[in-house]
Write the structure tokens for this entry.
Amino acid sequence: MRCLACRYELPGHGAITSEDPQGVAPGDFEVRVCPGCGGGTTLPLVGAEELAKYYPQAYGPHSRQGASGPLARAAMAARLRTRLFRRLRRVVASRGGDGGRPSLLDVGSGSGDLGSVLTGQGWRVVGLEPSAAACELARRRGVETREGTLETAELPEASFDAVVFHHSLEHVPDPVDALRAARSLLRPGGAAAIAVPNFDSRQRRRLGSNWWALDLPRHRFHFSFRALHAALERSGLESTWLRPTASVLGPAASAQQRRSGRMEMSGGRFLAGYGAALVTYPLRWALAEALGDGEFIAAIATPRAGGISDEA
């Protein structure tokens, strides 16, 4: 069995074993860590149809009615102030897009939280989401959303100025296939923006299976910096900007999971922790960049002149 990112041979046993923290999928799941790139592969491997069964009906990004309440609105505003989206905007600023607005595909768009905000900031957003219920919620909020995946949506090539994987690339069965599909959708001068959990972060190493961003079995691949670089290279993309960053939610979510053994984002203690995490987010973000060790990885990538690497 080979690593999904770099194709290095995986070890015969897992470094982490965990049950589903949301209590949906039965049994134990394991993560095998690649000796070549440090990325983690969730086992057993499953296809898209089986993977869909791992999402609870009340899965947060699929069921929210939108960013309601001051904490949720502030969290989304904090995310959009990060360098990831500022840099993406600068990369595509020279393109007029359709009707003067740059076009953006939001892969794994959920109920449209990100898309609705980006639409208000001048992007022409198209969401792509496999959950029919989440698509309906997004459309009610005015976000054009297509039901499906990069493999099934039949989107025309070179049709977007930007493709965004905002905490969705770790969910797909094969991240290199997804990145290759994204590359084909980019117009000349376009870019992909990526945000994923950092599997090599201090928080993950300290918390182990209690790290909230592990989220087995929904997270199919777990990225280190080297793993993301390898996946981009094999897909014909290259990173023009790659940085560690902090999580808005992380401290509160991991604390809740340690207490209850479940990913339950509710209750007074969680909300108090969430508020504190939101207040400290700018400091934690600055520290992540200064120390080179954050809970998330953010990247901007553009098509590489040499094209797609051969399969190893």
About this structure: Residues 66-201+232-303 form a domain with the Rossmann fold fold (CATH 3.40.50.150). DSSP finds eleven helices and eleven strands in the chain. The first strand starts at residue 16 and ends at 19.
